[in-house]
Design goal:
alpha+beta; about 180 residues; 11 strands
Length: about 180
């Protein structure tokens, strides 16, 4: 019988195993971080789309104008109101049927929101849910951008919101 017959790992085997794990972790962590950032960005974009669709449907359902209010920059917010313009940075200012309707940047200051000037005083009309602006009815654009990510949300004259992005493969490319 061999007295050196053991059932364990040698120090070299453990070192090789640890080195392989370190290499795999070094490759996986950046990929995971990038995927997490893209998912958060897509979630913020979808949240805006959801609120715009909700505003349009509430305008038709309640037979009242629903006004869009924006605060841009890194601490952005979007407020909806059935009583005219509101300030989405002030509590209980933006309400529909006495319920606050605000979507905020969720403390994620990595993403900036920009709105073209025509949307700063826009609302959805109660008859067809069409987008109305003070100058003339037409489309409007909302831009969301991060470090290497960007998306553009456009609202057409009919009030339908659509999203495009050149940096996220889940959406069509922006023209």
């Amino acid at each position: 019988m061999n007295k050196y017959n053991s059932h364990g790992f040698t120090l070299i085997e453990i070192m090789v195993y640890t080195a392989i794990l370190a290499i795999l972790a070094g490759v996986a962590v950046p990929i995971y971080s990038s995927t997490t950032s893209k998912t958060k960005f897509a979630s913020e974009s979808e949240k805006i789309i959801h609120y715009l669709t909700y505003a349009r449907s509430e305008a038709v359902k309640n037979n009242s104008d629903i006004t869009l209010s924006f605060s841009t920059g890194s601490n952005w917010c979007l407020g909806l109101s059935d009583s005219g313009a509101c300030d989405c940075t002030t509590a209980n200012s933006c309400q529909i049927n006495s319920i606050e309707k605000i979507v905020r940047s969720a403390g994620n200051t990595n993403f900036n929101l920009a709105v073209d000037n025509s949307l700063k005083s826009a609302n959805f009309d109660p008859l067809r849910g069409m987008l109305e602006k003070t100058n003339a009815p037409s489309s409007g654009k909302i831009s969301l951008s991060g470090a290497s990510l960007s998306a553009e949300i456009s609202i057409n004259i009919l009030g339908r919101a659509d999203i495009c992005s050149s940096s996220l493969s889940t959406y069509k490319d922006c023209p």
